[in-house]
Predict the structure of Large ribosomal subunit protein uL22.
Amino acid sequence: MAKGHRSQIKRERNEKKDTRPSAKLSYARVSVQKACFVLDAIRGKGVQQALGILRYNPRYASRLIEKLLKSAIANAENNNDLNAENLYIAECFAGSGPIMKRIKPRAQGRAYRIEKRMSHITVVLDER
């Protein structure tokens, strides 16, 4: 059990909180593996260069991540008063979400399970 008053515990927890601008997309209808292909291409790049990569990437996940990156840039400008030219992608990752399970009939009366995977995608920016 934690020691101290509840407000003190909350205060200590909030001091450790990450203040970098970020954006999160929950329940994206794309698998983690397919989202990570796109995220690996933009990790560590400046935001303008990353937007250019996402704009011409043919994968479906790139459209979702482009919209998410624009949201993170807007959060940085409005909430943290940061300049968009100085931003770069410090972290970007995808975690697995729930799986929709569907059943497809197959030969000889068998059932075949189809798993439609979802992911939670996070983009964290930082200033150079």
